[in-house]
Amino acid sequence: MQEIEKTLRSRCAELINNGTCDKVIxxxxxxxxxxxxxxxxxxxxxxxxxxxxxxxxxxxxxxxIQYAKEGKTxxxxxxxxxxxxxxxxTEHRISRENIxxxxxxxxxxxxxxxxxxxxxKGITAVKEDGEDLVVSTLYGEKTVKKADCLLExxxxxxSKKHYVFDELIPEADGEDVKExxxxxxxxxxxxxxxxxxFEFWQEQLSKCIRCNACRNACPACTCRKCxxxxxxxxxxxxxxxxxFEEKMFHIVRAFHVxxxxxxxxxxxxxxxxxxxxxxxxxxxxxxxxxxxxxxQAGETADQRGPLVNYTTEDAEPTAVSDRGDN
Amino acid sequence: MxxxxxxxxxxxxxxxxxxxxxxxxxxGSSRLSYPADVKIIRVPCSCRVNPLFILRAFERGADxxxxxxxxxxxxxxxxxxxxxxxxMTMLFSMLDYLGVEKGRTRVEWVSAAExxxxxxxxxxxxxxxxxxxxxxxxxxxxxxx
Lengths: 326, 145
Prior knowledge:
Order of helices and strands of chain B: EHEHEHEH
Helix content of chain B: 25-40%
Radius of gyration of chain A: 21 Å
CATH class of chain B: Alpha Beta
Number of domains of chain B: 1
Largest sheet of chain A: 5 strands, mixed
Number of helices of chain B: 4
Low-confidence stretches of chain A: none
Strand content of chain A: 5-15%
Oligomer: heterodimer
Structural class of chain B: alpha/beta
Mean pLDDT of chain B: 89
CATH topology of chain B: Rossmann fold
Strand order of the largest sheet of chain B: 2-1-3-4
CATH architecture of chain B: 3-Layer(aba) Sandwich
Helix content of chain A: 25-40%
Distance between the termini of chain B: 34 Å
Shape of chain B: globular
Radius of gyration of chain B: 16 Å
Mean pLDDT of chain A: 89
Number of strands of chain A: 8
């Protein structure tokens, strides 16, 4: 990772100097070592400050909508981010000619909470060492398996291959991950009884504080005016006014991105209450695959989404209620 | 003295203007009966029904929501109900996933000539809701664990 970071810094500086782009969207060091945040770098010297390590989970494609309106912008995209990029192109939210895509290699991003959950306290730094992570703490060093600390979205990584790029760093591209088991948890929930499922979601969704982070981070949520900001909708407030709003918010949020969600996992990553929101999106993806054929949003930039399409032989809605009793 | 409250379901029926609403009209003028618990809301096309409408109906205390439209292929706007069909399949499967009884939501295709079908569908649906009882699941989510 350290080497990639060095290459990225010099390459971005070079791109700014030779006029290929006038700014770069990348990650900057946040307040702590584990909260690398999206940032724009507009000069060659600033580009020396960009960061790329195992805490760069943020998907930068959504920032292009706002920051790539003028001039030429370079952006660093991990393989999973390129799906979102394609989806934004499909929806004409960004224009390809204004953007220079640098595909960066990724072998999984780390979730600091998972390291903490192992009982490691006073963490001051985390370094990658092959398959392991060396965690420096106030009480000495500890080594943990990286595979145990991956972000939820990286555990079920669907591809190491960039679906859109102008150049790649490092040059060798990865492959799709075929067996990623991303529907395992959805299937587990489906196998429960309706009561158990209700219990599960009630417990999860009642944690919601309606901070709207899931909506704001989602690269598919790009409406200029969001239904949840409409003062006449009755849901346009930060706090939930009554019992039903959390569920309604989350169903509608997931529904609005159904068929457009690339399963980038940003919603769950940014949730301060750790609600597994990706399980709602994955349910829709699974159902769409089952009813209307395999579909991966963002694989190319010219697909027609399954919910803005139809065939005359589609399944009837009763197909859902006929599917057994639980 | 305790008075036992009898359960009277509240049922919302979204009916498309061109087929199902006319079907309901026909049911009425043919003197076919269907339960008074059904409140009909007329929409220009079944495809006008936003998932939020259905959720909102539940939020406001509906015990069941039924959506009626033209038969696939007969939409006044050619293709509206094809989109409805996909959307509602998705919405219903999501409600099921969240543990809400599947029987509380339904889509039926009722043409303007099917007064009899309209009345049978409504009778069946209301009977189903009586069976399921009051809708509590969608109301009490805020009960903290």
